[in-house]
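seq as requested:
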Amino acid sequence: MEFNFSRLKSLIKRDLSFQKKRITIYSIAIFFFCGFVMLLTGDEVYDGMIPPDAGEIVFAALLIVGGIIFTIHIFTEYRTHAERIQYLSLPASHLEKFLSKLFLSLVFFTLITIAIFIIGYIFFGFLLPPIIGGEFVSLFDLKIDIFLLIILTYYIVHAVTLLFASLFNAFPLPKTIVSMGIIWLLSFLVFFICLRVVLYDHFSGIFEKNLESYNYQLDPQWVEKIGTLVENNIPWIVCLIVVPFLWLVTYFKIKEKEA
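struct tokens:
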């Protein structure tokens, strides 16, 4: 079946209507979670002011934590056999179904989180100061570049979460947490082995540092060059190559489920 934009719009409307109750529950939960996180950030008050990064912390918690939980349950149609058969019978291509879920869990959730954050930050920013004894930074004084960085982080985290959501039909949240933990441990192990091999003369045994290695100093220019290379290229590699690759794998996984 060829891609059709009108069908995609209809499918997005159908998904929004189908998940209307869950979206409402998430919106209410995120609103009160905003107040809870703002209350936690108010434990340190300096000269009557809450730390200026409190707003960024609150937004990051709402978008990333809430987004992971929302996205991991995005494929609700695959939870039961009856719902799966009904979803498979929809007149839409695999690509349209994938883009509908991508739009709902990435674009729509980001926009609704921004709206709830603005409302919650203003509301709880007025309600909480008498309780915690400090004022929050004005909404207009928050750093936009930090918020864009948080959205970019969610863009990357979302791609991983969406893939796990397509892999697990039942109990997706605990399975995803366990899988991510295993991947993190394996990644750390691979990193440590590579570090151990490259800097073998800095170690004595497996973990102990070689005291003689303190006589060696890394070239400051080389360190600066590597740092600049990582800072300037790794984010673009992840965003432009890794994330689209994860989307492609997720698409084929959806296609495989519906084959």
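The longest strand covers residues 203-204.
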